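Section 5.1 Outputs to date
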Amino acid sequence: MNMNKKLRHVYRNGLLIAVMLFGFAGQSFAAEHVASGSEEDREELKLEFEDSDEAAWAVESIGKMKSRNVLAGYADGSFRPNQAVTRVEAVVTAVRLMGLEEEAKTKPVSAKLQFKDAASIEKNFKWAKGYIMVALEQGLFDTSDSVLQPDKPATRLWVAGLLVKALGLEKEALATMTVVPDFKDADDIAAGSVGYVNLAVENGIVSGYPDGSFKPGKNVTRAEMAALLVRTGDQLLEQAGAITVTGTITAIDFNGTSNPATTVTDAVYAGNGGSEESYGTITVESYNGDSFTYKIAAALAVPFQKRFIPASQLLVGDAVSVTADGDVVVEASFIDKALVDESTAGITKFELELKSTDGADTSIEYKNEKGRVSAEIVMKADGKKKKLKGDEAAAVVGGLLEASAITPDMTEEEITGQVLAAQELELDQVRELKLEIKFSNGEKIEIEFENDDEDDDNDESDERSDKRTNKKS
């Protein structure tokens, strides 16, 4: 298939990925979203600091981490969101996020640290020694670290490494040490940190700047640290087996249900729906049409229109995203219904890497989380590379999803066929395909396909490798 044919790949809504990228990348196809007009009077949880508005974009992340006892403010009631986070602060919050604070508190204060600046730590940060010891035991430092420099501002590069290690992904990071990150300042990333940056980006913990840079030496602010911790916490939950369901509340009731059994995420969420909380039940119908009923703490902090409410203030008919470990909700978010497009709401994540037999490569990343849609499309063909992001990319991918009409009850073969059909591609025109989809009912499907045929016209035996996995949470 040549480039001209690729330019004719039309989706149902009339948008062209290739034409958008190679011909009209400057044209805006942004969808109009009507702001929510809801003025419902619901009880509010006070989770903001007196200066949280100094980083208004991070208020929700700061509040989430405060509600989980991961972040704390200063004695004067401030949070100082735009102040650089120090290395010792970053370490302490990472240990808390991992649910290991109680372990840190049991460490003997008389224990000796092997850092060359141990005397400074002992004098000025004795309160943090237990956290540092746990961090050492959990492998959060490099084996070559001889000093901590606890009061030194933590850079983006340093924090990326710390959080990847907190996720236990050091082995995966080491495997990507020779993969050059796709940033224009990649040469500024230390060779021994390349894999950690790759894994941090791959797992959605950090991203680059609009100018294509990563800025590895830039200091991380306390507000930015809150956002990075939220993203890392989401990954920890997924690792623990938690699933996220997005849809509409069809029933909710709080009648003093007894506390559920302890789960693997209890430690991570200590203080947010702890042992003394009263529990109720919530039923959510996902945008895929199936219903789920969970226990939920009445006092669970729920982001709601730039503030927080307790879960007991949620109502039937609310659009929500709930993350559950077993049968217990550990996180919930209110979604503005004005931002929900039900034609595509059944898919919360769509990632596609497609290499066609004519040498063209297409990469698509799409997320629809809590009513917020983000997307990026990268296409390489005939020596050219074009990238589309934001509303334009979201509109194109939305058209692809609508045309594909993918549902979680389809087989891998059916899903692959639908995705390719939406692009007017046949399977024998694909050299390699990697596809990951998450649905609003919590299911996750991963598909990998490799076509080993080098010359279909001259080799009738057609040796083909079809590697597919299906992981449903």
